[in-house]
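re: ur msg from earlier - yeah i can do the adenosine-5'-diphosphate complex, just paste it... oh wait u already did. ok heres what im feeding in:
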Amino acid sequence: MERVVSGIRPTGNLHLGNYFGALQNFIKMQNTHSCYFFIADYHSLTTHPNPADLHQNVKQVLVEYLAAGLDPEKSAIYLQSDLPETAEMYLLLNMNAYMGELERSASFKDKVRTQPENVNAGLLTYPVLMAADILIHNAHKVPVGKDQEQHLEMTREYARRFNKMYHTDFFTEPTAFNFGEKLVKVPGLDGTGKMSKSDTGMNAIFLCDDDKQIEKKIKAAKTDLGPQGENTPFSPEIENIFALFELVSSKETINYFKLKWNNGEEKWYGEMKKQLITDMVSFVNPIRQRIQELSKDSEYLSKVARLGAEKAHESGAETVRKMREIIGFKKFY
Ligand code: ADP
Ligand code: TRP
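and the outut:
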């Protein structure tokens, strides 16, 4: 069976971008693949969370994984820090990761630009830690959103490089994966690129949002002045709104509003937003309710995390053991 690995950093509540870019695929793959889904808590240290926030955010992602439909019986659901062999693998891979390529990574350049006061070495070697997460289970496929494509390219390069250096075919070259074939980018509500957690929280719809919050955010979402004639292309703002419709509404609903746009009709954005609110609430509501129930069940969460850690260890420790052997570490005792 093909192996699948993916993770999300615990830096806040999960939103629709995380769901449709990543989680949705995790859920589907559980039945057909051998799956390892983790919470990337080592990765989140680049942002220096305090201990209480770190724990709270890890718990939240664990709860949201389960609420969205990950099944601990089918998949290994674990904390990255519960598989400390990841850190050893990261050290080993670092020896063959070069400064130049790490400095050229788009996400690193982005951080240098946006947070020049905290350009730590963890940020520079972020793609190496990510490669360790993936290669530690020798994954074939990695379900992620479009923004992670370059990191996957780097993982493939590290796998190839190791194989070449040690004349082996030990590592599989993993590929970024999405069921819809193309990797997904869910747009944000403020019309500025992808949905992500922002300071105001108004750019993203979270899986834990209640009906009122969803209504408020969609009402505030950017639109334009209306279609400027018949059969004109969508404006970027309306393109974003339709992208959100595609996630949660039926074909009929989408075609109904598309027709209004194509006919150059006036004054239907109110009706459109109302429909989007209704469909969004129907999608998020059941997940939010499960989030609330699961948050209270500490005993179950601890059972899930322990089972996940065991499964992850079984696979990961063996990979690192073999890797050490290939590199030439030999015991004297
Ligand atoms: P965020 O951007 O909110 O910090 P992460 O970087 O932790 O989210 O992303 C976790 C996963 O969710 C990754 O696989 C990423 O590709 C996916 N993802 C995040 N935002 C989006 C989005 N707007 N569209 C598609 N996928 C996304
Ligand atoms: N870098 C990913 C993100 O920001 C999270 C991540 C860490 C990951 N390790 C991974 C994703 C391994 C897939 C596989 O979203």
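cool cool. The chain is about 55% helix and 5% strand. ping me if u need the other ligands too
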